[in-house]
Amino acid sequence: MVKNLQKKINTIVAKEEFCIGCRLCEIACITAHSKTKNIIKAFKGEYPLPESSIVFEEKGYVSFALQCRHCDDALCVECCITGAMTKKDGRVIYRKELCVGCWMCVMVCGFGVIAPDINTHKIKSKCDFCLETGKPACVEMCPNEALVLKETHEQD
Amino acid sequence: MNRTDYLIIGNSVSGVNAIEGIREYDSKGEILVVSEEPFENYSRPLISYFLGRKISQQQTRFRDESFYSDMKAHLLINNPAISLDCSNHAIELPAGKKIRYQKLLIATGAKPWFPPIDGLSNQLEGIFTFYSLNDAISLAQYIESVNPDNSVILGAGLIGLKAAEGLLMRNIPVTIIEMADRVLPNTMDVKGSEIIQSYLARHNSEFIKNDTIIRIESENNKIKRVILKSGKQIETECLIIAVGVRPATTIVKNSPIVVNRGIVVDNNLKTNVSDVFAAGDVAEAPDFFENKNALIPIWPVAAKTGKVAGSNMTGQNISYAGLYPMNSIQIFELPAISFGITNPQSKNFEILEKHQPDSHFYRKFVLYDNRIVGCILIGNINRAGIYNLLIREKIVVTAFKKDLLEESFGFLMLPREVRKHIVVGESMEV
Known about the structure:
The structure holds two protein chains of two kinds.
Chain A: E1 11-14, H1 24-32, H2 39-45, E2 55-59, E3 62-66, H3 75-79, E4 85-88, E5 91-94, H4 104-108, E6 116-117, E7 122-123, H5 137-141, E8 147-150
Antiparallel strand pairs in A: 1-8, 2-3, 4-5, 6-7
Chain B: E1 3-9, H1 13-25, E2 31-34, H2 47-51, H3 67-70, E3 73-76, E4 83-85, E5 90-92, E6 98-106, E7 110-112, E8 127-129, H4 133-146, E9 151-154, H5 158-169, E10 174-178, H6 190-201, E11 205-209, E12 213-219, E13 222-228, E14 233-235, E15 239-241, E16 245-247, E17 263-264, E18 276-278, E19 283-286, E20 293-294, H7 299-313, E21 326-331, E22 334-340, E23 350-356, E24 361-368, E25 371-378, H8 384-392, H9 416-423
Helix pairs in contact in B: 1-7
């Protein structure tokens, strides 16, 4: 028997040996989720800018960028008490309007990539795998292939 | 319908996840869900948000309106399962209606527990439990009609504190009475309890610890005051009893299904009777740390066991690895998360902790054999899930022990091979 419901899509993985810490991935993420989608217009004219969905870690010469893995059996979806975190076409999608800020997803996400905003009771920003274009902007922008798409076997 | 391939008793988080678990592997088999409650779908932890008027009744759903039709699952609400006949693979519903099943999941959850209190009666107005949406609706209606000056909550566990928050949001002062010497005695350690209590105390709430209610006095069928063991008396028109829950095992009472405190299940979520599974708060499932079964009535366990049970009902052989207590509670603007063993009583555990009283920041780790077995995060819960991962994967933390307490803790502090394993994602298909 096969899993019916989940079409697993490619996953973004980080390769720290190629990451130089330029943080262009964050710029790309913000631009891709801005109103104008234009890097200059977004950064010079939009307020507030969306937050990047990337968690960037850096210490000395070691750095890497992490974002949602869109896990197959996503614990954040399983543990969401409102249905704000939901699985759609293999992606973990966050529906802000449903979120009450219970932080169950923050509690269970093993990558630590769901950032809580304690004051607004919402998640700061959640990777949507660039839903609109289908091509993650951070991966496209990375000059060194430190962020790459990992091919995963598609199940149907 | 008189027969179904899959029958699920209970329509809360476990039942819903079981539907999804079934549909991952079987898109055709008939699913019937029976629920004693009058609602199509709601999330228990959301009732405190509803009470606090942060969300509407409609917003207590945790699945979309199209969920049951998308899943091709039939749902019968207002239908408590009355009896179970395992040998005939059948259950009885009200009005003598019988349903036969191929596979059965018992996901009946739990029921609020009542301590022995003189004068306690369900005939009295103004006394509530805080477990179901119906409880929250009745409480909200009562508050709106009576406008009580204050309220009393018996029990300072998670349910009691969230009920308190809901009432405080309606500007009703609360007095919380707890038998133990501190709030959240089951999830927090002493310091964690103190921090949360002192924070709550700034919000129109009062705590009475090491005490309990021994008598309720009423007038005209309505609660008037409570008398405590210490002799103290509190006048109130509104009492919420939140001392805990017990597995709702009534349905298996006259069956051969083995019940300890809850329905005993194995790693496949199977009971001792063939074709009968149990999941969620009613189930006593394998524990993560110890080679025994345990009751862990929390959402993540209910979701996971429901999902695994559902998958296994289709013939899969998925093993449930066991979980440990984990709770996330934000009271007003103070977030707190705890995992596993937070308050060990033996000296075999190593404790790491850091407390900054000014900022409510508190972080504590309980280690055993150089692995994290428990953790408390208050004030700053950023990346809490990484600790959950370290517990679940039983990662040896010796090399980065000191870094655990840092607010900036991340994968960079992990040894390279451990980090790469996680970051590249090889080990993370949970």
